[in-house]
Specification:
Distance between the termini: 64 Å
Number of strands: 0
Pfam families: PPR, PPR_2
Keywords: Repeat
Order of helices and strands: HHHHHHHHHHHHHHHHHHHHHHHH
Protein name: PPR domain-containing protein/PPR_1 domain-containing protein/PPR_2 domain-containing protein
Structural class: mainly alpha
Shape: elongated
Oligomer: single chain
Organism: Cephalotus follicularis
GO molecular function, one term: RNA binding
């Protein structure tokens, strides 16, 4: 609001808006996400320099208008303005989420203008190739960099994670640590998730050591990710130890603990005590935590605790989303309350494959074969394709 008032004062008092001032106004509107306003300022400037052109390209890229960013970049050369390394960096980031072919064209300009060794440009090229899944070229660029910044490390780590290369992402993460680069916490969380998914308990232990070395052991979101990674790697004891020794437990760590226990099927870790603790510290309970607790209730067949969770869900979330409704159906079905499961099913507006599977499995488990087959036929009529789980439930 204050920035717009300043701009209005400039216009009202007919202050001579010089090039630098106009460029700063463009940057301001880009930062607050008003791309129409910064374009108007840009179009009214009598002469645009590489700085103002780059500000427009960067602004469009930051706000997700990648096509507009590339159009401005295309207009720049015919206007007689030569791009600099910041221009190329912004344009390459606009292509990294669009198309590799366009990015390779800009890469050709980069080499022609001899910006290929610039750190900003090279990091942007690395980001382009990694986001497009072209990890071989990304790794080649990475290896040829004499200096690496946090952007280039991130690009390699996240590129490998997106492509599912857990070992490679972990290897690059460890190399970054050995070279003395301090990782962003989001990178450690991403590598933890990938390591846990691939069952790499040794990797999780190694990252835990790095977290301690960096002094991040009081970072609750990061410790929450570590708890989740230990649990999913099968080390429930380590997850439980970390959780119990946290000085300030929050919704992230509680969710990680409950989700981790639910994911590995170890339900003897005092699920009821965990719920009581959450209630006692008056912590805001979100949908993810409720779904995890309902999952635990289903697998220990605790109907009383499940009903409490349902009551909290209705109190905290007046309208249950699909994930929570599915969890409720599964809980009631596994606890033998098939009528309650059917009631939740009937009250749902939108249903997915999991919704139908949970109720069909519940009917099958409790001997309601006629209802199970009838529901299956109705599901087919709705146009949903059956899965192996559905066929197993029906055969049962």
């Amino acid at each position: 609001r204050e920035g717009r008032l300043v701009h209005n004062q400039i216009i009202t008092n007919v202050i001579d808006s010089n090039h630098d001032l106009s460029t700063k106004i463009i940057i301001f509107y880009s930062k607050i996400g008003d791309s129409d306003a910064d374009r108007k300022v840009f179009d009214t400037m009598p002469k645009n320099s590489v700085v103002s052109w780059t500000a427009m390209i960067s602004g469009y890229t930051q706000n997700g208008f990648y096509e507009n960013s590339l159009l401005v970049f295309s207009d720049m050369h015919p206007a007689g303005v030569k791009a600099n390394h910041f221009t190329y960096g912004s344009a390459l980031r606009a292509t990294s989420l669009r198309c590799l072919d366009r990015g390779l064209q800009i890469q050709g300009y980069v080499h022609k203008e001899r910006f290929g060794e610039n750190l900003v440009v090279k990091s942007a090229l690395l980001d382009l190739h990694s986001k497009c899944g072209n990890m071989e070229d990304a790794y080649y660029l990475f290896e040829t960099m004499s200096i690496r910044d946090i952007v280039s490390w991130n690009a390699m780590i996240n590129g490998y994670i997106v492509q599912g290369f857990a070992d490679d992402s972990f290897r690059v993460f460890c190399s970054m640590m050995r070279e003395g680069s301090s990782p962003e916490r989001v990178d450690a969380k991403s590598v933890l998730r990938m390591s846990a998914r691939s069952g790499g308990l040794m990797k999780v232990n190694q990252i835990h050591k790095f977290i301690i070395q960096l002094g991040f052991q009081c970072d609750n979101p990061l410790i929450g990710s570590l708890i989740d990674a230990y649990a999913k790697s099968g080390s429930i004891g380590s997850a439980h130890y970390l959780y119990r020794n946290m000085s300030n437990k929050d919704i992230v760590s509680c969710t990680a603990q409950s989700s981790g226990c639910a994911s590995v099927g170890n339900y003897d870790i005092d699920a009821l005590d965990l719920f009581k603790e959450i209630s006692q510290i008056h912590m805001g309970i979100d949908g993810v935590l409720l779904c995890s607790m309902l999952n635990i209730c289903a697998n220990i067949a605790s109907l009383s605790l499940g009903r409490q969770m349902h009551a909290i869900a209705l109190k905290c979330h007046s309208i249950c989303d699909m994930a929570m409704s599915n969890a409720l159906i599964d809980m009631y079905a596994k606890c033998g309350e098939i009528d309650e499961a059917r009631r939740v099913f009937d009250e749902m507006g939108e249903k997915n494959v999991i919704t139908w599977t949970s109720l069909i499995a519940g009917y099958g488990k409790h001997g309601y074969w006629h209802e199970a087959v009838s529901l299956y036929e109705k599901m087919e009529f709705e146009g949903l394709k059956p899965t192996d789980v559905k066929f197993l439930s029906l055969l049962f």
